[in-house]
Amino acid sequence: MSIPEPAGALASNEDAGDLVGYRGHDVERYVPEPAKNPQRTPFERDRARVLHSSGLRRLGAKTQVLGPSSDDFVRTRLTHSLEVAQVGRAIGQALGCDPDVVDTACLAHDLGHPPYGHNGEKALDVVAASIGGFEGNAQTMRLVTRLEPKSLDAQGRSVGLNLTRASLDAIAKYPWPRGGGPGGPEGVSARKYGCYDDDMPVFTWMRQGAPAHRRCLEAQVMDLSDDVGYSVHDVEDAIALGRMDPGAVTAEAEAQAVITATRDWYGPAASADRLAAAWERLTGTGLWLRSYTGSPRDAAALKNLTSQLIGRFVSAVAVATRQAFGDGPLSRYDADLVVPQDTADEILVLKGAAVRYVMAPREHEPVYLRQRTELFDLADALIESGDRHLEPVFAHAWREADDDAGRLRAVVDQIASLTDTSARQWHARLCGMLSEL
Q1: Do 36 and 13 contact (CB within 8 A), yes or no?
Q2: Boundary residue ending a domain (148, 183, 206)
Q3: What are phi and psi of 63, to 5 degrees?
């Protein structure tokens, strides 16, 4: 059952007030709400709703690159999201975006990711193939507009967190439905999209007045902050856990291996020469570690390296965007983020280093196959058992569904909400076997 268009006027009782660069249109909510605490802006309320959501808490036990149980040091989706929010806030403030809109988008950007990270996303896309597939970004939009219990419409149906239009739009990394973006059904939007067909009414409302296929500035800041966060921090994790020797990667053979991994994983758009130059710039800096033993001195040097890299990227983007669009406050569709080519290449090759030393080796580990099999088994068990084992919110969706497609979507929503730990527990309980992960 899809969310209907809201009844009555769309205008919220809140107003933009002193929010520089934002209008009443931007602070409207799908279901109007009375103005509340005048000491808080609508965007501060949005951030608080995401911060207190159960979806955000669950990210603490969801895979980032390495599973949460692999080591106490490694990042989870939650710690990654907090770090992305800090990077995004710095960029947003430099440009004049409302920091709470950017913060909300960064905190929310991974809410829709299922257990086992991208491995789980691939499995659920297979499970949901007959109902339009599964995509983490579309699931995020579904969660904040529907699944996260906070607000109801006049008919008593959940509208999720009922965020403002500006905050919702900032979350939309891919502002189109499946197959409805650049390249059409055969292009990138067949794989990367921000909305399921079932959730189009609220998505259409959110995009009122927005240029087709164009992301707002705050969404662009969120996306770049995500790239900066995991490019730098995944390399930090790889070095700290001994998977990457920072001294060895300056050798020609290892440098070439990083460049090859980058182009194999992310495509050949960036030339090998550009990536080689970027890698040389990064590893040639005086801040780059020549060895890592885990000593306090090395740990401090590694942390300083990550801080300097983040500062390097944030500063380059802020300066380039200001040069292109001037000194005034920039928000929504006033500007587009300008990422210098050298900066884009450096971020990409760092992502490639994480592929080389962490992600690619794991693709061939038996654990990956076991994780996917586990989710397939769990989906079968839940489909066969009806609403008996579903949590109340998903059991309600199952009972309210008009057809098998709606019931399958309720099962997929349930599995996507699970953490790595609870997915293993559910599998052991419902499928009668313990997963050796």
Answers
A1: no
A2: 206
A3: -60, 135
The per-residue DSSP string of 228-287 comes to HHHHHHHHHHHHHTTSS-TTGGGSHHHHHHHHHHHHHHH-TTS-HHHHHHHHHHHHHSTT
Q: Which positions ≥6 away from 70 have C-beta within 8 Å? A: none
Q: Which residues contact 77 (CB under 8 A, 6 or more apart)?
A: 59, 60, 62, 63, 64, 110, 113, 117
Same structural domain, 31 and 75: yes
Final residue belonging to a domain, choices 206, 237, 267: 206
The reply to whether 238 and 347 lie within a common domain is yes
Contact at 8 Å (CB) between 378 and 430? yes
In a domain, 19, yes or no: no
Per the CB < 8 A criterion, the answer to whether 3 and 200 are in contact is no
β-sheet bridge partners, residue 158: 152
**pLDDT tens for residues 103-127?**
999 999 999 999 988 889 999 999 9
Same domain, yes or no: 195 and 265: no
d(CA 404, CA 198) in angstroms, rounded, equals 14
Global pTM value: 0.90
- In one-letter notation, the amino acid at residue 161 is L
Domain encompassing residue 407: 374-387+395-431
246 in Cβ contact with 239 (< 8 Å): yes
Residue range 243-269, pLDDT digits in tens: 899 999 989 999 999 999 999 989 888
